[in-house]
Amino acid sequence: MKRKKGLLNAAAVFLCWAFCILGASEIFFRFLPVSHGINQALSSRLWFKEYWKPVNRLGFRDFEIEENAAGKKKVIVLGDSFAAGHGIRSVKDRFSNILAGKLGRDFRVFNLGVNGAGTLQEINTLHSFPFKPDILILSYSPDDIKERALSLGVKFEGFMPYEHLSPWLRFLVSRSYVCNFVFWRLPHAEYGRYFSFLESAYANEAVFNAHLGDLKHFIDYSRAQGASLYAVIFPYFGAAAQNQAYLGKVADFFKGEGIAAIEVARLTAGIPPEKLVVNRTDQHANEQVNAIVADELFRRLTQDGRF
Predict the structure, then answer these.
(1) What is the 3-state secondary structure (H, E, C) of 23-42?
(2) Are the C-beta atoms of residues 298 and 137 closer than 8 Å to each other?
(3) What is the enclosing helix (H) or strand (E) of 207?
(4) Count of CB atoms within 10 A of residue 11's CB?
């Protein structure tokens, strides 16, 4: 009897400690902001709440437009999450802001990066912005083709990470910060399916040619405005070798049009991929890569007599 009572007491103490540890862990993870590549993790929502600022009245992660900006040389940085600085805690560490510091007070650099934007959305963003550029910097990444691919029938179901879970497990993972944190550190088939979708898009001749036509719009626009165009081509660093097959074709297209194409994979060759990304669940370019890109842009602008 005494032994049974002792076992029950031990079990009660164990359960008490387990609940205390789980409760403390849940509280800890509710205040742990961690950037995530596709923004479906609960920790990623915390990260955006903590670090996605400033946001100006036009909705861009950038400072408000000053009244005296019209009298300065204007640099527009256009692109998706790589331009916006996904995973970069402070905007001062983005390549656009680092470049602004190098260019000095006679220049105003506007960052029009939008998470998830593709080339078609970027065209609309450029035309709706109140200023015209003296220098246009197009930040390009592999998924810029996705809008054109979807419009021409290339299929991708989207990211549905919780769909395969049982209802009770889905409830737990979607609401518990501890379980959600662990879940997003496990392998996910969605990533592989998305990369396959992109490869199919670039391999589709009709899609790729239409996409090059969309990119040609930036070239024609910059020439009509008398602006210099620079294309900064970012890979997915975890799959840079696979990306190069189609990103190389995009770089060749720009170079064939007489446009400077800065291939970030070449600038960072020799650096381990894990040293180039924000973290293991966010494959966007980290602060080191942004600094490298800013240095190269400044070198090109100086070489071209733009500064």
Answers:
(1) HHHHHHHCCCCCCCCCCCCH
(2) no
(3) helix 205-225
(4) 10
Asked if pLDDT for residue 20 goes beyond 80, the answer is: no
The dihedral region occupied by 80, where left means phi > 0, alpha psi between -120 and 50, and beta the remainder, is beta
Q: How far is CA 216 from CA 122, 177, 187, 229, 261, in A?
A: 13, 45, 37, 11, 14
CA triplet 127, 228, 294: central angle to 5 degrees?
100
Beta-sheet pairing, 228-233 with 107-113: unpaired
**β-strand pairing of 282-285 with 107-113:** unpaired
Beta pairing partners, 277: 285
Interval 82-119: pLDDT, tens: 999 999 999 999 999 999 999 999 999 999 999 999 99
pTM: 0.92
Question: Residue 249 pLDDT more than 60?
Answer: yes
